[in-house]
Structures are given as structure tokens and as C-alpha cells.
Amino acid sequence: MALASDLNPGTSPVLSLRLMMNLGCTLFRLTPEEALVGVTINAAKALGIDATHGSLEVGKWADAVVWDITGPAELSYWLGGQLPVTVFKAGKEIDV
């Protein structure tokens, strides 16, 4: 299952992928690990870009967020706060 938000004010006024992970866990009974897969590789597969995006592998775009957490459950549990420690876009660290 892919989890995402198109951030469309008319149909999906949601900015937070972490909220989508929370909804995946609570509404669809996904585990936090399954929800994380849903917003990464499965989302990339749904868009047809999984050959270049969606997981950290050699040869793929290095887009990643580093969080100060102990495991995936914290991403889908906390609905506020927990700003990213570091963000990488195309392999380069960007300001957050």
C-alpha cells in the first residue's frame, strides 16, 4: 500500500507524511514499519519512479530525512514536533 498526500486544498489538505503514517497505522492496521514502506518505496512504485527513488541504494537519488528517534513507531505516533535533524535532497544536505 502506498501512503501519501497530494497536499491538495480541495481533497487532501494534509502537509504531513507522518500524519499519513499515523492514519495508515490506525485506520488500516499497518505496522509502523509497513507505514514507512508505504511512504517510501511503495509510494515511489505507485508513481513509477522506484528505479530511482524510494529507498537508499547505490545509483538512486539520495533523498533522506534523519530524525532523532529510536524506531519507526515514533514517526507514526507523534503528530507534532520532532522536526528533522538533517535533510538530504539529491545527496546534498539542505537547510531545514
TrEMBL record:
<keyword id="KW-0378">Hydrolase</keyword>
<dbReference type="InterPro" id="IPR006680">
    <property type="entry name" value="Amidohydro-rel"/>
</dbReference>
<protein>
    <recommendedName>
        <fullName>Amidohydrolase-related domain-containing protein</fullName>
    </recommendedName>
</protein>
<dbReference type="Pfam" id="PF01979">
    <property type="entry name" value="Amidohydro_1"/>
</dbReference>
<dbReference type="InterPro" id="IPR005920">
    <property type="entry name" value="HutI"/>
</dbReference>
<keyword id="KW-0479">Metal-binding</keyword>
<dbReference type="InterPro" id="IPR011059">
    <property type="entry name" value="Metal-dep_hydrolase_composite"/>
</dbReference>
<feature type="domain" description="Amidohydrolase-related">
    <location>
        <begin position="28"/>
        <end position="93"/>
    </location>
</feature>
